[in-house]
Design a protein that fits this description.
Low-confidence stretches: 334-353
CATH superfamily of the largest domain: Tetrapyrrole methylase, C-terminal domain
Number of helices: 13
Largest sheet: 6 strands, mixed
Number of strands: 17
Distance between the termini: 44 Å
Structural class: alpha/beta
Mean pLDDT: 87
Oligomer: single chain
Strand content: 15-25%
Strand order of the largest sheet: 12-13-16-14-15-17
Order of helices and strands: EHEHEHEEHEHEEEHEHEHEHEHEEHEHEH
């Protein structure tokens, strides 16, 4: 029988050791309960005071996690006398050293989280998550975990990278299973490599669970393939976080194929000016896909020549993926025509109607 209880503000007594009970405590606190964790002997002593009418408050629920069977029998009898529910829950394993999983959360659609990523979250004691990770479902996916927001916004890092790495390692050294959850893939401009090195320096076991990178999936959500037969047989993923050198710009034009830019909204004018200086065609198609996989996803299609004149009007904002290349013509936008100063900005919902 599956019975759901509203535990908001309820007094829940969890019985067991600190390490084994850690996920149970986190889960009940996450449900809004006022949780007290006691060793089995201390729990029996408290309930004994309740039975004899001393000042000890009676809990609304007792959750047995681990301890000697004899003490459990005593506590069960005391709870029965007071008509207090006592249930049992599986504790977490005691680990001499924890483990870290770097998990890619994909582009934001919860259906695109991998099975391995979901499994790691379900076993986690601590989850450190980013702004672009699928955080709205974390309480459901990681019910026994402490959730720590270390998200960064453009131009502002709420928690410095060095501090994030220290938090990861410190929790793992205390025996916790730690999940570092990122948007996209942890090794695609996610600083996952730095966090792996931090774990290895501390001799903490670490596993990398790849995620669906926005570099491919977000263009796909707008109907744009990054490669297409007889159009583009290569694609280059670049970070637009900082401006490119002249050599880098020349190589991008010379390589041909599709250019996919992440974190490039603010440096887009510099990028297209540089590409133009090094010979890219002025009418080369360019698409800006904002907030991929969200209900307010917006795709703007234009050209390398026209995009700078549009920016003041459309005011694109991060997160956004920029695609430059002939593959943009392959998408459904081909039927609508290229967009110049009379730009077209639409959403996935608009396309469906």
């Amino acid at each position: 029988m599956d019975i759901s209880l509203d535990l908001t503000g309820r007094d829940v007594l969890v019985v067991g050791s600190d390490t084994v009970s850690r996920r149970v405590v986190a889960r009940y606190r996450g449900a809004g309960a006022a949780v007290t964790l006691l060793a089995p002997g201390d729990a029996c002593a408290r309930m004994g005071q309740v039975v004899v009418g001393n000042s000890a408050p009676a809990p609304d629920l007792i959750v047995w996690v681990d301890g000697q069977d004899g003490l459990r029998s005593v506590l069960t009898d005391l709870a029965t006398q007071q008509r207090i529910w006592l249930i049992s829950e599986q504790g977490a394993p005691e680990l001499p050293r924890g483990h870290v999983s770097l998990v890619g959360g994909g582009p934001g659609d919860t259906d695109l989280m991998t099975v391995a990523g979901r499994r790691a979250l379900g076993e986690a004691d601590v989850v450190l998550y980013d702004r672009l990770a699928p955080r709205e479902v974390l309480a459901l996916w990681a019910p026994g975990a402490e959730l720590i927001d270390v998200g960064k916004t453009p131009g502002h890092h709420s928690v410095p990278q060095a501090q994030i790495e220290k938090l990861i390692v410190d929790h793992a050294l205390r025996g916790s299973r730690v999940v570092r959850l990122k948007g996209g893939d942890p090794f695609v401009f996610g600083r996952g490599g730095e966090e792996v090195l931090a774990c290895r320096r501390a001799r903490v076991p670490v596993t990398v669970i790849p995620g669906v990178t926005s570099a491919i999936s977000v263009p796909a959500a707008a109907g744009i393939p990054v490669t297409h037969r007889d159009v583009s047989r290569a694609f280059t993923v670049i970070s637009g976080h900082t401006p490119f050198s002249e050599d880098e710009l020349a190589h991008l034009v010379g390589l041909g194929g599709t250019i996919v830019v992440l974190m490039g909204v603010n440096t887009l004018p510099h990028l297209v000016a540089g590409l133009s200086r090094h010979g890219i065609a002025p009418d080369m198609p360019l698409a800006i896909i904002e907030r991929g996989y969200s209900l307010d996803q917006r795709t703007t299609v234009t050209s390398v020549h026209d995009v700078t004149g549009l920016l003041g009007t459309i005011k694109p904002r991060s997160p956004a993926v920029i695609v430059i290349g002939e593959v943009v013509r392959v998408s459904a936008w081909e039927d609508m025509g290229m967009v110049g100063h009379d730009h077209l900005a639409t959403t996935v919902a608009d396309l469906a109607t």
